[in-house]
């Protein structure tokens, strides 16, 4: 056999082997994923959700079951690190994971693929700006390179009060969804191209409305922090959507419907109240 046919034969064998390895890896990954999702949800974790994440009790049974699997997967793949002397235990991890995963429900392929770690402080913490040296007190933040930082007392307070429209975990993980494409601009990855025009029109209009009301000192269903920039608007709108659905649906129906379409969830239906 000449050198060329032999080389081609070897190349074919290497390519076939690489394809086989790739298929095997994907098969094992899918099997591992199914095993994680099918794990029984510990009763201790249910107790944590009942006591610390009351929105859990509002979810239909089918979404509760889905949430259980997503929490397992989140905790399997996401490292947690305590800061400021905090020891991270299961109640902390489960409380954070459950709220983060609520944003993924009903969307089979939604995930936090680029999330690398979650840092948790016991309470508000001070952050120094690398460029200006100025310091600020923070409740949480999401870095584009894959880290979410949270203060535990703010997490717990936001989780337990499900009607004030302020939830730092929902807020920062909404930023993670926004940052999935590497840009923090208030536009997460949408289902298809046709969705972007509607998103830009409605969220852009509502952002400008909030900015004007904030400048005039007028109240809104949304916290005025959402007027900071489009990224903060999306995060605040997400908090409002899940915690004040009735008011948002009544006062800003187009925004509510746009978020409902994106999240594939209708929090208003969980309350048993109509929009009227």
Secondary-structure blueprint:
Elements: H1 3-37, H2 43-52, H3 55-58, H4 61-77, E1 80-82, H5 90-102, E2 117-121, E3 125-128, E4 135-138, E5 140-142, E6 147-151, H6 152-160, H7 168-178, H8 194-215, H9 230-243, H10 245-251, H11 253-263, H12 267-270
Parallel strand pairs: 1-2, 2-6
Antiparallel strand pairs: 3-4, 5-6
Helix pairs in contact: 2-5, 4-5, 5-6, 5-7, 7-9, 10-11
Query: What separation lies between the terminal Cα atoms?
Result: 81 Å
Task: Enumerate how many helices there are, as a single number.
Answer: 12
Radius of gyration: 22 Å
Helix-residue proportion: 55-70%
CATH names the topology of the largest domain as Cyclin A, domain 1
Secondary structure tally: strands: 6
- Biggest sheet architecture: 4 strands, mixed
Which descriptor suits the 3D outline?
globular
Low-confidence stretches: none
**Secondary-structure arrangement, i.e. CATH architecture of the largest domain:** Orthogonal Bundle
Strand residues, percent: 5-15%
Q: Mean of the pLDDT scores?
A: 90
| Total domain count | 2
CATH top level label of the largest domain: Mainly Alpha
Order of helices and strands: HHHHEHEEEEEHHHHHHH
- Order of strands across the biggest sheet? 1-2-6-5
């Amino acid at each position: 056999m000449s050198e060329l046919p032999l080389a081609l034969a070897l190349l074919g064998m290497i390519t076939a082997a690489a394809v086989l390895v790739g298929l095997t890896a994907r098969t094992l990954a899918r099997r591992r994923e199914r095993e994680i999702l099918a794990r029984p949800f510990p009763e201790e974790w249910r107790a944590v959700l009942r006591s610390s994440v009351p929105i859990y009790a509002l979810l239909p049974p089918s979404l509760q079951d889905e949430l259980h699997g997503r929490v397992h997967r989140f905790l399997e793949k996401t490292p947690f690190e305590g800061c400021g002397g905090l020891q991270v235990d299961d109640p902390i991890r489960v409380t954070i994971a459950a709220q983060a995963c609520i944003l993924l429900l009903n969307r089979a392929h939604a995930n936090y693929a680029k999330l690398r770690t979650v840092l948790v402080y016991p309470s508000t913490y001070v952050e120094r700006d690398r460029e200006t040296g100025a310091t600020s007190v923070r409740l949480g933040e999401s870095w584009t390179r894959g880290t979410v930082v949270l203060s535990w007392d703010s997490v717990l307070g936001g989780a337990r009060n499900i009607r004030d429209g302020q939830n730092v975990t929902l807020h920062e993980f909404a930023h993670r969804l926004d940052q999935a494409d590497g840009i923090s601009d208030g536009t997460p990855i949408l289902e298809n191209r046709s969705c972007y025009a509607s998103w830009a029109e409605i969220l852009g209009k509502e952002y400008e409305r909030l900015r004007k009301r904030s400048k005039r000192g007028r109240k809104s269903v949304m916290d005025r922090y959402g007027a900071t920039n489009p990224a903060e608007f999306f995060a605040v709108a997400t908090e409002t959507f899940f915690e004040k659905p009735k008011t948002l649906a009544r006062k800003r129906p187009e925004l509510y419907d746009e978020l409902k379409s994106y999240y594939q969830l209708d929090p208003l239906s969980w309350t048993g109240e109509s929009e009227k």
